[in-house]
Design brief:
Chain lengths: 306, 287
C-alpha cells in the first residue's frame, strides 16, 4: 500500500514539475532549464563518482562533444538536429570507454588528472581541426525548439537518469559497485570484474552528459568550441553533487537547486568573484559538510531519535 | 637544432616545477592541484617587483623562496594536515586532498584576478644570444641555467645530506621512517613547504620568458603532473628526463604543426605513459 502511495506522490511531483513552463516563462523558465540540466548532469555524475570515489572532471568534455557534434553536424554536414542528438551520446560513451580502459585500472589520482585537462585538450583539438580542415568558423544551431521544449526534453533525460539509478541500485551491478566502493580488494576477491564495472558506469556518465549537451545546444544558437567545452561546468557539477551528497539518488538535487540560484546571483552581480566562490564552495564541502546536505540531514535525524 | 635547444631550455624550467610537485606528492603524499597557482604567484611576484620597483627577477627569487616556503608550510599545517588526521584510508585522503587543493587553487586564482586581471607582461633580458649555431633569448638561457643550479643543489641535498636522507626515507615508507626515529609529520610539512618554494622559484623564472596570467596555473599543474607520472612518483632523475622530453615534444609540435596543439601533445605523451609505463620511465613496481 505505501508503495502505491509513494508511486502516486512521485507521479504527481513529476506532473507538477512538467507543468512548470505553463506557469513560468522568461527568466524563471531559463533558471528552471539550468536547474534541470545540472540535475541530470550531477545525478549521473554521482552514480559513477559516488560509489567509486573517482572524481570525474570530464563532464565539460562530454557536454561539449554533445553540443559541438550537433553544431558541426548541422552547419558543416547538413544533418538534422535529431540525428546528431541521437549520435552524440554514443560517440561520447565510446570515448569514455576508451578513457576508462586507459585510466581506471590505475589509482584514482591518474584518472582525476586525465579528466582535469580533457575538456581543454579536446577544445584545442577541435579548434585545430575546424580551422584547418572544415573551414567554417561559425557554427549555427537553428531549430524551431523553444525554451520549454528544451525543458521537457531535459526533464525526460533527468527522469531517465533517475530511473537508471534506481534500477542500478537494485541490480547485481549496483551491488558490485557498492562492494567495490567500500573495498576494491574485497570486490576483486569475490570475483567482481572491477575495471569492467567502473568503465561501464563511466560510459553512462559520458552518454548522459553528451545527451544533455546536445539538447541544450539550440539555446546557444551560435556555437564556438570555447563556449561548449567549458572546464568550469565540470567543476560546477562536482560541487553541486557533493554539496547535495552522493549517497542517495536524490542527493545531488538538493545541491543543484541552491547552488544554481547562488551561481546565478554571483555571475550576474559579481562576475569577477565567480572563481573565488568556486574555491570557497570546494573548501566548505571538504571541511564542513563532507557528506553533503543529505549526510547532514541523516546525522541530525540520528541525533533527534535516540 | 632550434627546436632541440629551445625545447631543452623549456624542459629545464619544467623540471624545476615538477621537482616541487614531486616533493609534495612523493613525500607529503598530498596531490597538490594548487601547484600551478603557486607557480603563477611566483610569476606575479616577479612581474610586480620588476614593474613597480625595477627589481630584477633574479633578485626577486631570493625574496620569493622564503615567502613561498612559509606560505606552503602554513597551507599544509592549517588546511591539509587536518585532512591527513581525519582520513581513515589512503583513498579517503586522496579524495579529500584533491577537493581541498582544488578549492585552494580556485581561491588563489580569484585572489590573483582581483590583484591583476591582465597578462603579466614585462621584458627582461630579451636579447638574442648565439648558442651552438642557433639564436635563443637570453632570458630563456638564464632561466634554464638557474633552474639547473637549483635542481642540482636540491638533488645533492637529498642524496648527500642527513636531512635529505630523512626526506627520502619518508618518501619510501612513512611507517618505517617513523620506526627509525624520523619525525614523519615534521619532515612531511618541510617537504611540502620546500616543494612550494621550488615551484614558486620556477614560476619566477618562467615569467621571464612566458607571458602568464592569473588563470594559466592549471595548465602548469597538468604539465607538472604529467611529468611526475612519466618520471615515476618520487623519482627526481626520472622527473628531469621526463621534463626534458615534454619540453622537446611541445616545442616540436608548436613549431612544426601548430602552437595550439601543445596540450594535445602533452596528452598524447600522458596516454602513452599510462598505457605502457604507468610505473614511470625508470620505475619497476606496479602503479
Amino acid at each position: 500500500m505505501p508503495d502505491i502511495l509513494r508511486g502516486g506522490a512521485i507521479l504527481l511531483a513529476v506532473l507538477a514539475v512538467a507543468a512548470l513552463p505553463l506557469l513560468a516563462d522568461g527568466y524563471w523558465l531559463s533558471i528552471a532549464v539550468t536547474i534541470m540540466m545540472y540535475t541530470a548532469l550531477s545525478t549521473s555524475w554521482a552514480l559513477f563518482s559516488g560509489p567509486t570515489h573517482y572524481i570525474a572532471l570530464s563532464t565539460g568534455a562530454f557536454y561539449g562533444i554533445g553540443g559541438y557534434l550537433v553544431a558541426t553536424g548541422m552547419s558543416d554536414f547538413g544533418t538534422s538536429f535529431w540525428t546528431m542528438m541521437a549520435i552524440a551520446p554514443f560517440v561520447a560513451a565510446l570515448l569514455a570507454g576508451a578513457i576508462g580502459i586507459a585510466t581506471l585500472r590505475l589509482s584514482g589520482v591518474y584518472f582525476v588528472i586525465f579528466t582535469l585537462g580533457l575538456a581543454e585538450m579536446i577544445r584545442n583539438l577541435v579548434s585545430w581541426v575546424q580551422n584547418n580542415f572544415l573551414g567554417s568558423k561559425g557554427l549555427y544551431v537553428l531549430t524551431e525548439l523553444e525554451e520549454r521544449h528544451i525543458y521537457w526534453m531535459l526533464l525526460a533525460v533527468t527522469l531517465a537518469v533517475f530511473l537508471f539509478g534506481w534500477r542500478l541500485g537494485r541490480s547485481r551491478m549496483g551491488f558490485a559497485l557498492r562492494i567495490l566502493g567500500n573495498d576494491e580488494e574485497v570486490a576483486r576477491h569475490v570475483g567482481i570484474d572491477t575495471a569492467r564495472t567502473k568503465v561501464l558506469l563511466f560510459m553512462t556518465t559520458g552518454f548522459f552528459a553528451a545527451l544533455v549537451g546536445a539538447i541544450v545546444a539550440p539555446r546557444y544558437y551560435y556555437i564556438e568550441p570555447n563556449v561548449v567545452f567549458s572546464p568550469e561546468l565540470s567543476f560546477l557539477v562536482v560541487i553541486m553533487a557533493l554539496l547535495g551528497g552522493t549517497r542517495r539518488l536524490y542527493g545531488p538535487l538538493l545541491g543543484v537547486i541552491p547552488f544554481t540560484l547562488l551561481w546565478e546571483v554571483v555571475s550576474a552581480s559579481f562576475p569577477s568573484a565567480t572563481t573565488m566562490v568556486l574555491g570557497l564552495a570546494f573548501l566548505l564541502i571538504v571541511y564542513l559538510i563532507p557528506d553533503g546536505v543529505t549526510g547532514l540531514i541523516g546525522k541530525l535525524r540520528k541525533r533527534s531519535v535516540p | 637544432m632550434d627546436v632541440v635547444i629551445s625545447g631543452l631550455l623549456l624542459g629545464g624550467a619544467y623540471a624545476l616545477v615538477a621537482m616541487g610537485l614531486n616533493l609534495q606528492y612523493g613525500v607529503a603524499r598530498i596531490m597538490n592541484l594548487a601547484n600551478g597557482e603557486i607557480l603563477i604567484l611566483g610569476g606575479l611576484a616577479a612581474f610586480w617587483a620588476f614593474v613597480s620597483f625595477g627589481l630584477s627577477p633574479l633578485l626577486t627569487l631570493v625574496i620569493v623562496a622564503p615567502l613561498a616556503f612559509i606560505g606552503s608550510w602554513a597551507m599544509y599545517k592549517l588546511l591539509l594536515r587536518p585532512l591527513v588526521r581525519r582520513a581513515k584510508t589512503r583513498g579517503q585522503l586522496e579524495v579529500d586532498s584533491i577537493l581541498a587543493t582544488f578549492g585552494i587553487s580556485f581561491f588563489l586564482v580569484g585572489v590573483m584576478v582581483s590583484l591583476r586581471a591582465e597578462y603579466f607582461t614585462y621584458s627582461f633580458l630579451a636579447t638574442p644570444v648565439h648558442l651552438l649555431g642557433t639564436t635563443v633569448a637570453a632570458n630563456r638561457l638564464v632561466a634554464a641555467l638557474i633552474a639547473a643550479a637549483i635542481g642540482g643543489a636540491l638533488y645533492l641535498w637529498l642524496n648527500r645530506s642527513r636531512p635529505g636522507m630523512a626526506v627520502r626515507a619518508v618518501a619510501v615508507s612513512p611507517e618505517a621512517a617513523g620506526l627509525v626515529g624520523i619525525n614523519v609529520d615534521r619532515v612531511s610539512a618541510f617537504a611540502f613547504a620546500l616543494g612550494g618554494a621550488v615551484t614558486a622559484l620556477g614560476g619566477c623564472l618562467i615569467s621571464t620568458f612566458v607571458t602568464l596570467d592569473a588563470s594559466s596555473g592549471v595548465l602548469f599543474t597538468m604539465k607538472a603532473l604529467i611529468i611526475v607520472i612519466m618520471g615515476g612518483v618520487g623519482d627526481i632523475r626520472g622527473a628531469i628526463i621526463a621534463a626534458l622530453i615534454l619540453g622537446l615534444v611541445e616545442t616540436a609540435v608548436a613549431s612544426i604543426i601548430d602552437p595550439g596543439l601543445t596540450l594535445v601533445a602533452a596528452y598524447a605523451i600522458f596516454l602513452a605513459v599510462l598505457l605502457f609505463r604507468p610505473q614511470g620511465l625508470f620505475g619497476q613496481g606496479n602503479a
